[in-house]
Amino acid sequence: NPATGLPFTTGQRQIMQQWAWFLLGQNATFTQYKYDITADLRLRNVELYGQDEWRVRPNLTLYYGVRYSYFGQPYDAFNRLSNFDPRAFNPARAPQVDGSGNRVPGTGDPLNGIIVNANNTGLGGTPSPYGKYLAETPKLNFAPRVGLAWDPFGKGRTSIRTGYGIYHDQVLVGIWEQNIGINPPFNESVTITGTRLDNPTAGTPFVSPAATTLRAVQPDGKTPYYQHWSLDLQHQLFSKTLIDIGYFGSKGTHLPGIVDINLLPPGYALTQQCRNASGNLVPRQHPGQIFTSSIQELILDQIRPYRGYRAINMIQMRFNSNYNSMQVYLQHRFTGASQINVAYTWSKNLTDNQTDRSTAPQNPYDIRAEYGRAQLDRRHILSINYIYELPWLKGRKDFVGHVLGGWQLSGIVTAYSGLPFTVTTANADPAGLGFLGPSASGPRPDMICDPNNGAPHTVDKWFNTQCFANVPAGQNRVGNAGRGVINGPPTYRFDLTLTKNIYFGE
User: Fold this and answer.
1) CA-to-CA distance for 304 and 264, rounded, in angstroms?
2) Alpha-carbon distances of 248 from 63, 134, 162, 288, rounded to whole Å
3) pLDDT at residue 5 in the model
4) Is the bond leading into 456 cis (omega within 30 degrees of zero)?
């Protein structure tokens, strides 16, 4: 190797040989997609809003309003968007699958359950019942909100505020773009081996018969929405001291999350017999034996709920969240610009889904097992900021005062409790679910004690690892460890600034 003076590695020699064959006009393989896919997603949104306020009494004001949101479903301008609709899947038309995870040629419908633009069905698939759209558009997204501001003593020193409102949210459009990049019938390819550049069709064409992985969006999903409520008391204690204390809460409903809908119920695979790669009829596994997903996925493709497909990673609007907090704020002003502000939040944020499309539940048949601390949950948040004008030479207007006076010290002190962490295990599948897609990274072990109790809290070992164990052999179930059971390390931060103010005039 001229660059290093060392002999070429085996991999480098293989690359050089492939490059040499390419220069001679011969390729090992050539892959061609049916279309040069370019997503051109379009949609229509309409929102209307009305608000009013009523001064019931000089010290009491009522606020009320309503917002209407119409979030149209996206469609592709080239009509190459597809979706999977479980209602369009017919088990009688499902292809047969062999022990290698391949569809048996000539059996079933390879597009079983795939819906496409009703105006573009020339390549197969079921015409969408929504016309050029691939999912239903909710049309009743009314979001009322109401608020109250009250000065109970009428002196302008105390204010009590409360409010409640509903807020709708649009589902991310990018999840539809992933359908275009993965799903049939528009994103299909053929591979030719032993081909030449001057005659690409001279080689051996090959179309993979493997069961297909799909992306999908729930066709009958609801619009995600949030409910927010609050009760807040603000009072001026002294002329330069203000205190604010309040309760703030929210609840998310119909939140989006990804689910592999083609997983098997726990233990179901043990009741079935499948053919292995050699064609022999065998049970999925023997009692007490745990297969990794890489071994079992080929066999389990024969008995998945939607046979003919592997993972069907569907965005579903079926998840929830809640947040409750007490928030306290204190401000005191000193002479001049000196002041101190203290803010403290004690809160709890829980959810049964951590992200909208990257973390799937380990068992879609038991969403309750996913309920736990949200990824951003911090129980305690303390923030202190201050400004202190150094008192010397403040009144001097001469040269000495301008040079040596006008200094101030400011800073921010923050203290946060730790974020939650989730313990996962290797891609073992004791329940026989058939992990694929985002769920493959999420199997959790059993938790047999509190990993935070007596934890070493060192850099090398933060929590008690002895509190986790694999699911015992013969118990065909997922691990019982929840999400967010590890209390992460806290955060402390100190920022300090020394500033010089120079005044050239009043």
Assistant:
1) 6
2) 18, 38, 10, 49
3) 61
4) no
